[in-house]
Amino acid sequence: MTDIEQMKAASIRRIKGPTILLGSGTYYDFEDPESSQITIEDIAYGLAYTARFAGQTFSPHLNRRVMYVVAEHCVRGSWAAEASGRPDLALQFLMHETGEPVCGDMTGPLKSLCPEYKTIEKRCEAANAARFGIVFTDPTELKLIDLRMLATERRDLMRWGGEEWDWVKGAEPYDFKIIPWGPDEAAERFLTRYWELTANA
After folding, report:
1. Per DSSP, what are the bridge partners of residue 19?
2. For residue 196, what is the enclosing H or E element?
């Protein structure tokens, strides 16, 4: 079989199987995410057009509902990692949600009820991260940054009444204030941050 015939056969299988068509024009195969040709633009815009917290966000600073996207969460957390003395985790945090551009952002409480979904998402996350050479070297510290981001987002983006959340207990919010960007700005900032962090790689 020639290279062209192999490529056609692979394309047919992806189109017929559980696949989605990415913005870059290639198919993403959920049964074989490791073969995906997903681009950094697919990641950036997929995250920038995905709302955190199922879109249930309200800014007390602006006194209105707002859209806060996953790409912004990743960029701000990346900055926070660097500012707190862990520049080695900045790129890892930027890319820690690489499953969500293809799987969406299911809320944590719902995800806990859907173990099969979580398995698929984790496989896509691992495959997409590997495609960009991302190795998560300190998952515990990444989780702490993520929890501090959640505490910051709860303060700045939710109508939170002060009740305790078990999974955020002890996490201190960062001292920056979140005024959300729009999706397109979030995508561009994500790409700028990615190229900045990989410039010397």
Report:
1. 29
2. helix 183-198
Q: pLDDT tens-digit profile of 128-174?
A: 999 999 999 999 999 999 999 999 999 999 999 888 888 788 889 99
Sign of the alpha-carbon dihedral angle for 198, 134, 91, 153: positive
Tell me, rounded to whole angstroms, the distance of Cα 43 from its chain centroid: 8
Please say whether the beta carbons of 81 and 136 come within 8 A.
Answer: no
Q: Specify the pTM.
A: 0.89
**Residue 41 near residue 24 (C-beta atoms within 8 A):** yes
Among candidate residues 96, 102, 125, the one with its CA nearest the CA of residue 28:
102
User: Beta strand pairing status for 27-29 and 64-65?
Assistant: unpaired
Please measure the distance between the N-terminal and C-terminal CA atoms of the chain and give it in whole angstroms.
Answer: 37
